[in-house]
């Protein structure tokens, strides 16, 4: 447990995202950060009493970050346009921030490519906050930092 009074292991309200040298700003939701270890089992013959787990291929779901559209939307659109013609994969830093904007933890992602961007839906009959969602494919989570 941390002795920092601003540190909260449960609550983070924002996520910052930097891809290569592009600071895309803050996001309010994040999902898809994870690893599927692809464990398989081998069953022993004969008496059939033993089952042995074996490592498979590690798979990563797409990362999705969402925020209300605003001034930082321009940063996302500029990065997306630049990445269309990019010939190499990117690296990214996703940082969870405390309510006082103190970094809680940063994940380093490698092999990053844009997978999808979704802009807001507008409906005058059902007013709601206009948001954007950026979806990223990535090939590995490297050592993060607290």
Descriptive notes:
This protein has about 150 residues and is mainly beta. The chain has one domain: Hcp1-like (Pnp Oxidase, Chain A), CATH 2.30.110.20. The chain contains 1 helix and 10 strands, in the order ββββββαββββ. The protein has one helix at about 75-85; strands spanning about 15-20, 20-25, 30, 40-45, 50-55, 65-70, 90-95, 105-120, 130-135, 140-145. Strands 1, 2, 3, 6, 7, 8, 9 and 10 form an 8-stranded antiparallel β-sheet that branches. It has a two-stranded antiparallel sheet with strand order 4-5. Strand 1 (about 15-20) and strand 2 (about 20-25) form a beta hairpin. The longest helix has 12 residues, at about 75-85. The model has no long low-confidence stretch (mean pLDDT about 90).
Summary?
This protein is mainly β and 146 residues long. It has one domain (14-37, 56-145): Hcp1-like (Pnp Oxidase, Chain A, Roll), CATH 2.30.110.20. 8% of the residues lie in helices and 45% in strands.
Key structural traits:
single chain; 146 residues; mainly beta; Pnp Oxidase, Chain A; 8-stranded antiparallel beta sheet; two-stranded antiparallel ribbon; 1 helix; 8% helix; 45% strand; elongated
